[in-house]
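sorry for the late reply, my laptop died twice this morning and i had to redo everyting from scratch. anyway the thing you sent over, i finally got around to it. pasting the sequence first so we're on the same page, its 290 residues, then the predicted structure underneath. double check i copied it right bc i was rushing
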Amino acid sequence: MASPPKSSFLDASDVEFLAQLESHAKFKQRTHDTHYNEHMPELTARLHLNPSLPEDKTGAHHVNPANNSPIHAIYLGNSHLERLETSGSKTQLHALYETGAALNAGVGGDKNENVIWRLTEGLYSILHTTNNNNNINEIKVWLLVSGTNNIHTKHGIRPRDAYTWKLLLQACLRIAPRSRVLALDVGFRNDVDDVVVEAGNRVLEGVVREVNGEVRAWEGRGGRGGNGKKGKEGEDREGGDRVVWVECRHLITRAMLDDHVHLNESGYEVLDRVVAPLVMRELGLEREKE
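ok and here's the structure:
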């Protein structure tokens, strides 16, 4: 009997899916430098890969020697994540990657296409291989923070922006089919009308529903998660959704911005109160009491 036609991104081969990513990837120098001089060295060190990937010697090389913990959470996206090192340094989210189970793969200024470029430059392949072959580093949760740099004063989230954001969700779930993706909304900005941002968020929220529908259909057909284990829809997951839309924008006021878009310490306190408990729950940890 012939196999049913492929109807889900989870049914595509890695070659097919990587080709999709590569067709939407975009190079940026800062993206390149941070990826090769910070993220990849830390990733290979924490995964104990031998030999480690070659480094690009053109930029600063930073690996946090204090954190040798297995990786169970990935922060993927833009400067809101990267700035956890500075304005967000007092948060639980920061502590989770400083000495805990998270890897912070945030780069300032990154659009969806730049994040996709980093996935095609080794991040996807390494995490996918490790997640499927090494239970020690099984990815349980992603924090995706991307999209704000795709919004412009003259336009909001366009169809191509929604599609590249969808590719990011799909990449996370292909790397770790049993994981949860926490997709953070796009915050309000001082240089973009709130109506534009709000409309963009409605589009992205619709993408979340679409991806969750595909995953449920895939699991209903007997799709299998990482390590050959059948996806466990609903087990320890509210509603069984692999992607959770997380809203924070209405809680962050203009006074919580450092500039037109970046959060100050107060903004990160609010973000942390909303997001950190969700990450901790997926990791099976109780958030430290303040």
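Strands lie at 73-77, 102-106, 141-145, 180-184, 243-246.
thats about all i looked at so far, will dig more tmrw
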